[in-house]
Amino acid sequence: MTKLCVAITVESLDQALAHAAIAAERGADLVEFRIDTFTDDVAAVEQLVQQSPLPCIITCRIKDEGGDYDGDEQTRIAVYEHAGLQQPAYIDVELVAYRASANIRQKVKLVVDHPKQGKSTDTGLILSAHDFDKRPTDLYQRIEAMANDDACRVVKVAWQARSLRDNLQASELIADQHKPTIALCMGEFGLPSRVLAKKFGALLTFCGLDDETVTAPGQVGVAVMKNLYRWDALREDTQVFGVIGWPVGHSMSPAIHNAGFDTTGYNGVYLPMPIPPEYEHFKATVGAWLDYAPLHFRGASVTIPHKENLLHFVREEGGEIEELSARIGAANTLTRRDDGSLYASNSDYAAALDSVCDAMNIARDGVKGLPVAVIGAGGAARAIVAGFAGHGANVTIYNRTVSRATTLANEFDGQTGKVEAKPLDELTNTQAKVIVNVTPIGMHPNVDACPLDALPDQLPGVVFDTIYNPVETKLLAMAKQAGCKTVSGVEMFVRQGATQFELWTGKIAPTDEFRRILLDHLGG
Ligand code: NAP
């Protein structure tokens, strides 16, 4: 079973033992003591091993391999010898140092378990190789050298990932080895290798005690690994989902979907998937993830700037595209069905439509003939206009750049409902029953901004602001005070996520849980 190992930078004996105790409380199986700058007091290093509340790895990492040790090799190896005598679970020595000196090999072999070891010891040797810049060109030769050394119990490689595809290579390396293996990708592209280490059957993955005390780029805290990424529930057959965007680091989608998997008992995990904006990156990465069968990649939320790329990709792959998504020209949901076929759809328009319908207590077809004012003519407005007009509403688009509103109106006018365009300053005269803001006006940090100085004389029944941060924008506060029904962007976000969740899992999405998580996060 893959272990969760918390890496601890040792500053003092007391600090390291205290951190190890916290790691144990938080559910770690193992700790790695990084003694790079704690080599002066060998007696303290021995005590560290003796008193550790969890089995431990002793590592004194040299600068060339990303560590902080800059003393001489004799001292370093002497510390390893002392630590080794106390029988830690493992000691970690870099392949490059191990190969460079017969003396080091001999000293290390004195304290680790191997076929020619004369005395009884349980300590295993981890041979490791790191590259903080790229995947090393001689990665496979290095792995072979480690695996073929009779004293090596564990092969460890870590490299800076250049794309999400590197994670697949890490998985293949683990599958190919006859010895226990740790293969991790570093940096923002490498998170999947850290989380999915358990799915891929690695010996262990590394975490920080918390998100701030990590020892390598891309590591996350143990609580994030356990609670957000569902460490305890991960299995070889766990289905993988993600949010594709650029940037994608602050997306709240992993929080809601992973919580949804927990609540419904679905065997899935949901990860951030950063992909650079160009279509070639999207195609190469998503294609590789879909092709790699052991990954069980089943779907993704797709956000800016990839919504058009998703349509293009699914079309090229011969998949199915939801009719309204094709008309909108953008999709936000990729689904791989049980038969392997791809489906691209848009959960934004239905989320917006249903948020308003629920507030008015009407069914979707109840919007027929309803006058709706949409503020904005960008990507999200496009989906919302298509949704309302497609169900027969009479939509007026108010936009700063009128020509953009006119182009959008001409595209969707007459398909079912009427669509026309007007300049933003005419909004005060609107007689619409529903006003929808689809611009960033009023979004954090510009919370005092508002698309309207005052509500129109003929008050709308419902005011819907697609912004979710803050939960109550100035526009919504004004509308609430005037007695209108108000709908926040949280509602739209919850519903678009719920539609995706249900499409992927076949289970009813726990929308109250989604809402609670978002409101907690946003302080609403
Ligand atoms: P977009 O494509 O960049 O479009 C932005 C729109 O806002 C354009 O119409 C733009 O007018 C207008 N705009 C921007 N700044 C303005 C200003 N200072 N004054 C007047 N008009 C301004 O963005 P988008 O993807 O459509 O997203 C728009 C908003 O929708 C986002 O800010 C987000 O809050 C919200 N949204 C919410 C959800 C949800 O789930 N709740 C989902 C998606 C989007 P011009 O044409 O004149 O530039």
Structure description:
- The chain has 524 residues and is of the alpha/beta class.
- The protein has three domains: 3-235, Aldolase class I (TIM Barrel, Alpha-Beta Barrel), CATH 3.20.20.70; 242-259 and 267-346 and 507-518, Leucine Dehydrogenase, chain A, domain 1 (Rossmann fold); 349-487, NAD(P)-binding Rossmann-like Domain (Rossmann fold).
- Helix content is 39%, strand content 20%.
- The protein has 20 helices and 20 strands.
- The strands form three sheets. Strands 7-6-5-4-3-2-1-8 form an eight-stranded parallel sheet.
- The longest helix has 17 residues, at 489-505.
- The chain is elongated.
- 50% of the residues are buried.
- The protein binds NADP nicotinamide-adenine-dinucleotide phosphate (NAP).
- NADP nicotinamide-adenine-dinucleotide phosphate binds at residues 348, 376-381, 399-401, 404, 438-441, 443, 466-468, 489, 492-493, 496.
Mean residue pLDDT? 96
CATH superfamily of the largest domain: Aldolase class I
Report the portion of residues in β strands: 15-25%
As for the CATH topology of the largest domain, it is TIM Barrel
| Strand neighbour order, sheet with most strands | 7-6-5-4-3-2-1-8
Q: Please, what is the oligomeric state?
A: single chain
Secondary-structure content class: alpha/beta
Helix content: 25-40%
Number of domains: 3
Total beta strand runs: 20
Which residue ranges are poorly predicted, with pLDDT under 50 across at least 5 consecutive positions?
none
* Second-tier CATH architecture of the largest domain: Alpha-Beta Barrel
CATH top level of the largest domain is: Alpha Beta
By DSSP (H or I, 4+ residues per run), the number of helices equals: 20
What hetero molecules are in the model? NADP nicotinamide-adenine-dinucleotide phosphate
